[in-house]
Amino acid sequence: MTRAKPPEIEDEVSELVAGVMPGAAVLRVSRLGPDEDDDGGATGKAIGYGVPLRIRVRRPDGAESDLCLHTAKPDEFGHDRRADRAANLLLAFDSFARIPRHVRALDVGAVLDDGRLASLRRSGEFYLVTEYVEGHVYADDLRRIARERALTDRDVARCEALARLCAEVHAVRQDGPATYRRAIRDLLGHGEGIFGLVDGYPVGVEMASPERLFRIEQRCLAWRWKLKGRGERLRRTHGDFHPFNVVFDRAGEPRLLDTSRGSAGEPADDVTCLSINYLFFALEAPGSWNGAFRTLWRTFFQTYLDVTGDRELFSVAAPFFAWRALVLCNPRWYPSIHASTRDALLGFVERVLDAPSFDPDEAEGLFS
Prior knowledge:
Pfam family, one: APH
EC number: 2.7.1.-
Number of strands: 10
GO molecular function: transferase activity
Structural class: mainly alpha
Protein name: Aminoglycoside phosphotransferase family protein
Number of helices: 11
CATH architecture of the largest domain: Alpha-Beta Complex
Low-confidence stretches: 1-7, 38-48
Shape: elongated
CATH class of the largest domain: Alpha Beta
InterPro entries: Aminoglycoside_PTrfase, Kinase-like_dom_sf
Distance between the termini: 52 Å
Order of helices and strands: HEEEHEEEHHHHHEEEEHHHH
């Protein structure tokens, strides 16, 4: 990660000024503290989100004026990732002009590896270039299993391989109580979390009334207070370990796509994200649980536990099952699922949220 050092930025301000104010000359650069009023008392700002620089310039007409260069620094208030800080600065650039009598935003950019400043003021949407993996997504395997209501030896072997891969991802322990708290906070409050998903439900979804979703939200909020202090469980995580983000390549090896949420959090996130799909596909294909998906459900959990020994996972899994079920039950993502499947999954979540600890045998009640 590139970390901006003020002296390097100060060396680059002349080029920056030339871009936003052609013909202007830099006279001096000084740093601005978070609150320079020694008499601020209780109103003084103890910390600042960035380290601004005041740039005195002489314009081409000879008049002098000032610019302010803002940078950002990490903190635990939602700015710990580089992407957070970039988002804040981009939002500021996009928003300042909307408010009357607000200072103008003249430029926004990034600090390059060599300390130079690169403007992004002409940018539109952002893009990402990745490798391409030839193969097929794991979801195709699950569709076939649901259709045929039977397993092959390869299906079981792939389930075991995914459990071991999940355990391999989680083998890296991380030290950061604030990072774990954020993961639990984002589980609920992020736009892609529980609150955002519930807000995204269309009106009139069968078996997902606003009252039912409200009660699920309430239960999940209570779970946040149970989990937010469990920072010792922080691990490297994939963050979106579902069957459409797993590709088996031509050699039959699993490859992962689209790690999310900073790749750090609670291991139960990944475990529930994949495993709940065995329930989902089984509910959509009556008769496939006994002959196929029950075996995958049990194999995945048992293999993961054999590798990690992490039985504490059952004491924290409930709200993560809720999160993933809310995705599967939302018709904006899965418009064709049966209302009975939605009702069964939400009922499963309600029972899991009400229990002190998750028991994988709870799944049997969905198919009895």
